[in-house]
C-alpha cells in the first residue's frame, strides 16, 4: 500500500477518534450506554495520569490505560498527536491564512511546551495538579462543557421558539425535540460561570494557527512535550534516506515543521506526529521508517538540566505563592464539594480539572470554581445550589471522575453523604419575616424523613386577617445539604441557604 493510502488511513482514524470523542461527550451528558467509557480519552492521557498520581502520591488504577499511549509512543513516536488527539485533529482542520506581515516564530519557541510540562510536573511533585488546566484534553473538554454545549442548546431552543408560531413548521420542530431533547441535548439549559472566558481562551488557541500551522501543538502543548521527550527513544522512526534529492516537498507539506534543513534533511522525532504527509509528498521515496536503537540527537530547544532544576524551583515558589498571597485559598462557608469528598487538600491534589463531573451533572449545580478556593483551586467543581441542586437520584459525578478525586459511590451510599447544611434566614423567609404562607422548601426536600420541618403560628397578615402559617426550620442531624430547597426558594436571594458541612450558622 502506498504512503498516500496510509495517509488516508491516518485521516480516517482521526475522523473516527474525533467522532468517538464527540459521541462520548454526549453519551456522558445523557447517560447513554457508553457512559462507563465516557472518560476514555482521559484514561489514555499520560500527562493527566502522571500529574494526578504524582500530586496524589498514589497509583490510580483507572488511569492505568495511559500506559497504552506510552507504549505506543515508545514504539512509533507521537502517533497520539497525529492520529488520536481530538484537539490536535481540530487544529489540523482549522487552517487559517497566515498573517504575511509577521515572521514565523523561532524554533526556540518549542521550548515553551517543555517548560510548561516541567512546571506542571514540578507543582504536582509538591502536591498540586493545578496547572493541568493546560492539558489539551482537559482544555478541550472544559470548553465543550462550559461554553459550546450550553451555547448550542440555547441556540437550538431560541430557533425553535422563533419558528414554532409558524403552523406548518410545528410538526418538524416537535420531531426535532423528540429526537434531540434528552438523547442529545439537555432538558435543562446548562449555564456555567466563566464560560465566556473559557471560550475566548480556546478561541485564542485556534487563532494562533494564523501564526503557524498547529501552533499549539508545535510550541505550547505540554502533553505534546511529554510525548516528544519519549519519542526521542522511539524504536521505529521516519528517517530521510539516501534517495532524497533535497527537493523540499516534504518540508513544504510538514504541518509541524519537524524536518530540520540546517545540516542536511533530518526528521526530528520529538516534533514529528507521524502524520505521513512527508512520505506521501516525496516523489523519490526518499523517506521511510527504520528501526533505531539510540536516542535521537538533542535539539537546541530541548530542556537542559539547569532548566529542569529551575522549573522545580519555580514550581515550588509558585505553589507557595498561590497558598500565601491575596488570592490564596481562604475559608468559604459556601464552598460545597461533590458527594464523597471528605478532605479538601486531598481533593485538590487529585482533581485534574477535567470538568467531566460538571458535564454529567443533570442540574448544572456543579460549577467551575473561580476564586472560591483560591487560584490553586481554579476550575475545580463545587456545588452552587442557587444554580442547581445535587440530584438525590444521581451519582454520576463520582462514576465519571477519572482520578478518583470524587469517590465512585453507589447510589445508596451517595444519598447518605452529607455535603452541606441548610439554614433558614428568618429575616427573609416569607412565613417568618412577612407572615406569608410558603412551604416550598419542605415540599421539595427529597428525604423520606424530611430534614425540613414546619411549625404552625397564628399571625395577622398585611391585610389584617388572622391566619395560621407554617414556618420551616431545619433538622441539621437529617440534612444532607443537597441544595434543592435553596434552588426552589421563591425569594430573589434564597431565604434558605446551604453552607459547607460544619459551617452552618
The total count of helices amounts to 22
Rg measurement, Å? 27 Å
Portion of residues within helices: 40-55%
Label the CATH architecture of one domain. Answer: 2-Layer Sandwich
Shape: elongated
Give a quick precis of the structure.
The chain is mostly helical and 505 residues long. 42% of the residues lie in helices and 10% in strands. Helix 3 runs parallel beside helix 7 and helix 7 (111-125) packs across helix 15 (305-322).
If you had to describe this structure to a student in words, what would you say it looks like?
It contains 22 helices and ten strands. The protein has helices spanning 3-29, 40-43, 46-56, 66-76, 79-84, 86-93, 111-125, 136-163, 170-180, 195-207, 215-220, 222-231, 249-253, 277-281, 305-322, 344-350, 356-360, 396-400, 411-415, 430-433, 440-444, 484-488; strands at residues 236-240, 259-260, 266-267, 287-291, 366-368, 381-383, 420-424, 452-460, 466-474, 496-500. A hairpin with a 5-residue loop joins strand 8 (452-460) and strand 9. Helix 7 crosses helix 12, helix 7 (111-125) packs across helix 15 and helix 8 packs across helix 10 (195-207). The protein is elongated. It starts with a helix and ends in a 5-residue tail after the last strand.
Amino acid at each position: 500500500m502506498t504512503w498516500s493510502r496510509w495517509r488516508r488511513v491516518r485521516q480516517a482514524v482521526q475522523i473516527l477518534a474525533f467522532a468517538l470523542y464527540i459521541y462520548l461527550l454526549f453519551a456522558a451528558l445523557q447517560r447513554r450506554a457508553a457512559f462507563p467509557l465516557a472518560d476514555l480519552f482521559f484514561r489514555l492521557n499520560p500527562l493527566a495520569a502522571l500529574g494526578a498520581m504524582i500530586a496524589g502520591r498514589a497509583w490510580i488504577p483507572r488511569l492505568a490505560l495511559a500506559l497504552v499511549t506510552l507504549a505506543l509512543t515508545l514504539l512509533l513516536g507521537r502517533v497520539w498527536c497525529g492520529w488520536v488527539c481530538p484537539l490536535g485533529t481540530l487544529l489540523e482542520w482549522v487552517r487559517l491564512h497566515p498573517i504575511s506581515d509577521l515572521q514565523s516564530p523561532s524554533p526556540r519557541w518549542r521550548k515553551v511546551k517543555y517548560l510548561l510540562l516541567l512546571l506542571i510536573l514540578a507543582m504536582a511533585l509538591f502536591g498540586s495538579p493545578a496547572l493541568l488546566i493546560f492539558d489539551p484534553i482537559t482544555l478541550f473538554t472544559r470548553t465543550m462543557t462550559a461554553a459550546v454545549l450550553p451555547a448550542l442548546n440555547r441556540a437550538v431552543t431560541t430557533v425553535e421558539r422563533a419558528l414554532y408560531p409558524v403552523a406548518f413548521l410545528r410538526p418538524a420542530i416537535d420531531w426535532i425535540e423528540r429526537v434531540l431533547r434528552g438523547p442529545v441535548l439537555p432538558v435543562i439549559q446548562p449555564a456555567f460561570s466563566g464560560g465566556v472566558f473559557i471560550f475566548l481562551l480556546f478561541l485564542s488557541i485556534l487563532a494562533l494557527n494564523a501564526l503557524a500551522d498547529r501552533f499549539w501543538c508545535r510550541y505550547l502543548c505540554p502533553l505534546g512535550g511529554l510525548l516528544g521527550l519519549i519519542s526521542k527513544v522511539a524504536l521505529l522512526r521516519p528517517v530521510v534516506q539516501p534517495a532524497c534529492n533535497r527537493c523540499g516537498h516534504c518540508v513544504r507539506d510538514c504541518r509541524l515543521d519537524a524536518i530540520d534543513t540546517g545540516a542536511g534533511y533530518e526528521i526530528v522525532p520529538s516534533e514529528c506526529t507521524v502524520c505521513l504527509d512527508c512520505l506521501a509528498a516525496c516523489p523519490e521515496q526518499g523517506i521511510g521508517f527504520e528501526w533505531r536503537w539510540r536516542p535521537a540527537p538533542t535539539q537546541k530547544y530541548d530542556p537542559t538540566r539547569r532548566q529542569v532544576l529551575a522549573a522545580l524551583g519555580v514550581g515550588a515558589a509558585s505553589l507557595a505563592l498561590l497558598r500565601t498571597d491575596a488570592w490564596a485559598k481562604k475559608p468559604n462557608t459556601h464552598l460545597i464539594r461533590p458527594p464523597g469528598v471528605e478532605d479538601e487538600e486531598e481533593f485538590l491534589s487529585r482533581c485534574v480539572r477535567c470538568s467531566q463531573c460538571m458535564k454529567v451533572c443533570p442540574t448544572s449545580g456543579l460549577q467551575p470554581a473561580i476564586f472560591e478556593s483560591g487560584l490553586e483551586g481554579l476550575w475545580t467543581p463545587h456545588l452552587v445550589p442557587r444554580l442547581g441542586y445535587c440530584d438525590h437520584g444521581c451519582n454520576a459525578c463520582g462514576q465519571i471522575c477519572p482520578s478518583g478525586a470524587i469517590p465512585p459511590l453507589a447510589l445508596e451510599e451517595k444519598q447518605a453523604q452529607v455535603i452541606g447544611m441548610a439554614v433558614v434566614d428568618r429575616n427573609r423567609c416569607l412565613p417568618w419575616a412577612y407572615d406569608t404562607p410558603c412551604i416550598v422548601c419542605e415540599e421539595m426536600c427529597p428525604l423520606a424523613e424530611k430534614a425540613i420541618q414546619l411549625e404552625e403560628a397564628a399571625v395577622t397578615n398585611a391585610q389584617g386577617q388572622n391566619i395560621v402559617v407554617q414556618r420551616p426550620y431545619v433538622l441539621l442531624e437529617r440534612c444532607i445539604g443537597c441544595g434543592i430547597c435553596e434552588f426552589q426558594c421563591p425569594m430573589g436571594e434564597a431565604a434558605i441557604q446551604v453552607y459547607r458541612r460544619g459551617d452552618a450558622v
